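Quick question, first post here. What does this chain look like in 3D?
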Amino acid sequence: MTSTNSFGPGVRGEAEPARSQAPALTRRGLLSLGGGFGLMAALAACGGSNTPPTASAPAGGNGGATYTGPNVTVKFWNGFTGADGVGIKQIVDDFNSKNPKIKVEMNVYQWADFFQKLPAAVASGNGPNVAAMHVDDIGTAAAQNTIVPIQDIADALKLKESDFSQIVWQGGLFQNKRYGIPLDIHPLVMYWNKQVFTKAGLDPEKPPTNKNDFEEALKTMKGKGIKGYWVTPFQFTGGLTYFGLIYQFGGSVFSDDLKKATWDQDPAVQALTWMRSMIDQGYSPANVAQDADLVALHNAQNAININGIWQVNDTVRGKKNQQDFGATVMPQIGSQKAVWADSHQFVLPRQTSADPNVTQASEYFIKYVSENSIPWVKTGKIPASQTVLKSSEFTSLEPENKLAEELDYAHFPPPLPGVSDVLTQFLTGYQAAILGKADPASALKDSAAKANQILQANQSKYGG
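> Answer (accepted):
Ran it through. Tokens below.
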């Protein structure tokens, strides 16, 4: 099987050096940046299914509220490399030391490898007992019967929507069945270089929060010879930024029933036209290389970078003088607040022969991590649990405590089976306009038409 990737970030808190621009999607751009839709494509390569998944988690006692069974080993797979890996390892080590009857063995893969290995391992009966994936992975994994419904865990632990933010809780559903238990949310945020603001004569403690202030700041910087905001044609982070801006301008990426691409409608065209105008007005260079925007921010070559919250440690609390950088919520460019985000959620892969004790231990592990996620949050995340969100440990954690505001208006990629191929078309349309190969309206019309053909084919392939 082969896999591709669309809108899920992968290597958190790490930035590669800038390199030459390639106008087409690169393999790194499709795979190495992480999760999201990569698993969907990998599963799709295994073949679709019109049969709704019938498997469910085997009886596991009290759904993980406690564990009193015999000694067991729980296999836990994820793609948490980089800073993510440090945080999750600390939690796993703490869990193992406090729960001698349960040994969690964690396998950490690059997301591309994770996407390849999980479906095959599950099919062969050698899959993990617990896994973590992004919300936009869940639809395809569920449609392929690679993961099983886990409503029994939520019921046994008395979890409900009010225990989480609404978007994170709803993100674990597919066809009105619960497949995911939320761990976090990781949205885009805005970083700014205070030194560059000062050099341009701007207040370094007042980053722009709306369209007028944003454009005025860039205009001022341009007058000082500074291209203040670099727009990358890649998904990371240009495509992700555009995804959120569509909602800011009052549009949507898909229709409510997820059967039609709507990124060719007027709000989406307006959003993309605005992004292209950053280049046309000379605020951004053309043909920005992958990651060059973030590298330029660190090197004081630009002033503003819209990137993932997972860059907080590297940018705000990195080796540089942290007083020189700030992080704040996504500025409101359109008529309403909105931002791209994703979420890691725990899932239970299907077992061909499951031990109820291992299942219960796995569920107990999920419960423990959900309630003790501060080491994870410190890698650049917002906790999913309202209990952790309101804890003194999180409310004293800056800037994450302020960035949590974005929970109220974040938008996830949908858990739509086969969505990776669909959103590849989304990115193709975006990229054509940013690179000046087509005007925004034409680029989006063409890419949406191709996406709708894929959506129609996927309805037959996956059912629904």
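Confidence is low (pLDDT under 50) at residues 1-6, 8-60.
The first helix runs from residue 27 to 32.
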